[in-house]
Amino acid sequence: MTIGILTEKPSASRNFAAALGGMTGTFNGEPYVIAAARGHLYEFADPSAMVAPALAAQYKSWELEHLPWSPADFTWKRVMKEGAQATVMAIKTALSKCDEIVIATDLDPSGEGDLIFWAIIDELKLHGKKFSRMEFTDEAAPSLQKAFTARRAVKSMQSEGAFLMADFRTKFDLLSMQWTRIATKSAGQRAVLRQGRLKSAMLKLVGDQLKAHNDYKKIPFYENRFRDENGVLYSSAEEPSFKDKDDVPNKYTTSPVVLDSRTNKRTAPPKLLDLAGLSGLLSSKGVKAAMVLSIVQKLYDDQYLSYPRTEDRTVTTAQFNDLLPLVDKIAAVVGVDTGLLTQRTPRKTHVKDTGAHGANRPGLKVPESLDWLKAKYGPIAPMIYQTLAKNYLAMLAEDYLYERQEGHLEKYPEFKGASNVPKSLGFKAVFDADASDDKDEDESTAGLGTSADPFIHEGFPKRPEHPSMKWLMKQLEKRDVGTGATRTSTYAEVTNEKAKFPLLADTRGKITMAESGEMGYLLLPGTHIGDLGVTEFVQGEMKAVAAGAKTADQALSVVAGWIAEDIKVMQDNAVSMKKALGVTDVVVRERYTGFWRPTGEEVSFNRLWGTNTHWAGHRFSDAECEQLLDGKAVSFDAVSKMKKPYTAVGTLEAGVYNDKPYHAFKPDFGKADPSASPVPKVLCGYTFSDDERKRLEAGEKVFIDGLKSSKGKLFASTLYVGTKQGEKRKSVIFDFGKK
């Protein structure tokens, strides 16, 4: 009996092969074969392709009258992703003859690994097999060997809670496409406003924070305080504040300081970074999220970094031990004093035998130097490696130690002060992610003094900070919206300067709204999709579906009601949005969508072609659109920008503009339409009669008086149809010598 092991990606399959003895073989007396996916190989088809043919036009339409959708209409059919065919065929070949198939994808809290597995099994129709699950905390050889021998029997796809909750989430996210259509139509189709769950959360958080930051009023207040010779401030919660400095009573004198307590305190090293945390730190240095994603992938592929899209924030004991012999070498590369790395046993806060890939960290290959990384991968690579390496090495350093001193004033006991006095920097000498953050300018680390003098303190309410990528990633993490990798990739998408409708703009990590983002933000108030609690709802429903307390259909039933309510709210918001931004509705070009026979892919193209100041353009009929999709040429009468009539002949072609693919009608000016007449309807300002055209087409010579030159002068000529020298196509020829 052969066991087929399906891993999530090729790198995982290599680790399994190393642990079990090869891509095929026998382990623990059981023959096996290993196959690898490449993440998600299948995705849901377009909504219009998942409903009955009679409903396809309705689900393809962006008109609001066709919303909300009914989940019951969907077949939830998945289609293979572009470029996945070779991988799918390799998996099918490997698993088809196996008696048992093992789920060896990642153990994600979101169930993503199980969804990857079961989508493949479902589409390849392999449900008749025996199934089991390998459950492992990391991909170290002992862990994988143990997981192989202790496989958990699996009854079916529908019995696996991890799959059910991931399946529900992806269905919810597909239904959320409706909000994009509502927002786009409500905004007058000025831009495609993508209002998904994560993007709407980003807009809501950034928009609210920008408003709070911009609306801030720097209004001073004045009150009595004390300051000692070490700069420590003493204040009283009972002391009144005044709007005018002159109103503050002068009633205090210098007072001795009484030390109340000294307490030794410690702070452990920070958590290991996820991809969002890494991007947030580097954004202030001008590094774009998209570039971080690109470079970390290259460093991972070459084994200089661990798997970057992990959700883990800790490492396992095995992962810790694997990296421990390389610590000194890594420290030398990033300029860390190895004498600081004295904590070389696992910290309980950072090393836990849970998860799969482990947190982001250096890989088992150590680069020669930061300069070597820069030369091979570009200037951002050493920044990424140094940040992740120092973050990891920090947990091998001692805790940050400080003494907390608290005291009061002898004459005025209600005035209290405190100071944190550093004793040992510990990990902060290796990595201090908050070192660049704004510190309280009144904070003293010298300890309490002996005497404090009164003064009139001028204070201001703290201004809400300007939103930054680092700030946004922390807000999303706090609300459990998306994974670190998803937050980063989505942020890269919404801040992409080359995108047609970016939502946000990023300048060295500082975030502002793009026009489309401003429009989207002003549509959100009062909507369900604009409520940050929707993510909490989805998380709760995922757990309920996983536990069998609800079916996905039951959990999705609420969406239709939300859509119906949000249509009205967004339309009302659109009125004030357009007024506030001074935007007007725009006419969006009519498009035709269908499957292009030459490639089999679904494409969309403009139905109107050739519009200029002298011609309204040609609108392709349904028959012509289908002819273009069949890869055939179409022809029609047209007028050039120079007012010259001609017959346009062309086909549907693919192209790329600003790095984005498109499909459009492309005329071939050197190609004649076999069915087109060589005699135009109008020539040199003269309109042929039907009889004159027929005679010319039949090969007769016809004398025409009333032709007009380019300078407006009338002239006459004998015309006939022939082939000019050097040309292949027939056309009308002038013969001025004969009548």
Topology:
Elements: E1 3-7, H1 10-20, E2 24-27, E3 30-36, E4 42-44, H2 53-60, E5 78-80, H3 85-95, E6 100-104, H4 112-123, E7 130-133, H5 141-149, E8 152-154, H6 161-175, H7 177-186, H8 197-214, E9 221-228, E10 233-234, E11 255-267, H9 275-283, H10 289-301, H11 317-323, H12 327-334, H13 370-377, H14 380-394, E12 400-409, E13 416-424, E14 451-459, H15 469-478, H16 484-494, E15 504-507, E16 510-513, H17 515-523, H18 533-547, H19 552-556, H20 558-581, E17 591-596, E18 601-606, E19 608-609, E20 618-619, H21 622-629, E21 634-639, E22 645-657, E23 660-667, E24 682-683, E25 686-687, H22 690-697, E26 702-708, E27 714-722, E28 731-735
Helix pairs in contact: 1-5, 4-6, 6-18, 7-20, 8-17, 9-15, 9-16, 12-14, 13-14, 15-16, 17-20
Number of DSSP E strands: 28
Give Rg in angstroms: 35 Å
Largest sheet, if any?
6 strands, mixed
Biggest sheet strand order reads 2-3-1-6-7-8
Number of helices: 22
Verbal overview:
It is a single chain. Helix content is 33%, strand content 22%. The strands form 9 sheets. A 6-stranded mixed β-sheet has the order 2-3-1-6-7-8, sandwiched between helices. A 6-stranded antiparallel β-sheet has the order 10-9-14-11-12-13, with no helix packed on it. It has a 3-stranded antiparallel β-sheet with strand order 21-22-23, covered by helices on one side. It has 22 helices and 28 strands. The chain has 739 residues and is an alpha+beta fold.
